[in-house]
């Protein structure tokens, strides 16, 4: 029975092969006869043909069109898009640090997604965990002596206004920036795409409007506090001993200790000016610039890296200004501290006050000076 079935299958395959061969032979015979009467072959495409002309000579061949799109970074074409890059649909090839040699847009994406986001996010998490462990082991600093009831003015109303304006703008920028950068990883799966889209759109506009406020207030903060943040002889000793945070007694310091000075010069001055400069460029507020895509991509990478490092430094400042040091938040809230607090945390500053080099109440002293009668 099986032999009969095998014989039938072989005969069927042989018949199919013969039929296929006959069809091929017939097609070759027809082809040998040439085109039908009245047929005119289209002209071969020319290098300068437009897409419409090429569609007639080689219909369906879109390779030249997409080739010109791909090469628009080197040989700009013509589009209806406005702007200085109106003929460039795909940027030319570049290699940024951390990216492969590819188109500029793809290179920027690789740097952002492979380096800035994962390592920047990990750095923030590590710092937050380290601060939490430090607080768990050490608790708040200070509070070792009883208050005297005699107050010292640490910050004037103008200084506090400058600080709080800059701090509020910074928090708005930091929160909106973190949500736009990392929100899709921890918020999008929870609240869904619709709510997340509206939220990020609102935060993007908040970010753009808070940026100029932060820039102006940053300059005010720099000019207000630069005098007391100039390096002094005892700062090296303070840094070597980490301010005494791991010991039983703080290292004497002037109005601002070396740690606060490092934050001022590294966080506020250096990273602050980089963040402001790149942010204003991204907001297209710098006059006389073309704002090409490649320049915007580079500005974004600089802005993101500087912002993450700035936030890392400010996390320590926020910690010490709230729960990390007793009385620190009250100093910025009311402007005043007790003499015991001043002596414990800034002993050299307290000594200058007691010696009469610095007024204990600078606002009152300034008002008294301004109200004093002037000689005719």
Nutshell version of this structure?
The chain is mainly α and 376 residues long.
Give your account of this protein's structure:
The protein is mostly helical and 376 residues long. 64% of the residues lie in helices and 3% in strands. It has 13 helices and four strands. It has helices at residues 2-32, 51-57, 63-70, 104-138, 157-186, 188-225, 235-240, 258-282, 293-321, 328-334, 339-345, 347-354, 362-371, and strands at residues 93-94, 102-103, 151-153, 336-338. A hairpin with a 7-residue loop joins strand 1 and strand 2. Helix 11 (339-345) crosses helix 12. The model has no long low-confidence stretch (mean pLDDT 87).
List keywords for this structure.
376 residues, mainly alpha, two-stranded antiparallel sheet, 13 helices, elongated
Could you describe the largest sheet, including whether it forms a barrel?
2 strands, antiparallel
How are helices and strands ordered from N to C? Answer: HHHEEHEHHHHHHEHHH
Please tell me the overall pLDDT: 87
How many helical stretches? 13
Task: Please estimate the helix content.
Answer: 55-70%
Radius of gyration: 36 Å
The shape, in one word, is elongated
Q: Report strand order across the widest sheet.
A: 1-2
The tally of beta strands, per DSSP, is 4
Q: Which structural category fits the helices and strands?
A: mainly alpha
Q: Distance between the terminal alpha carbons, to the nearest Å?
A: 136 Å
Low-pLDDT segments, ≥5 res? none
Percentage of β-strand residues: under 5%
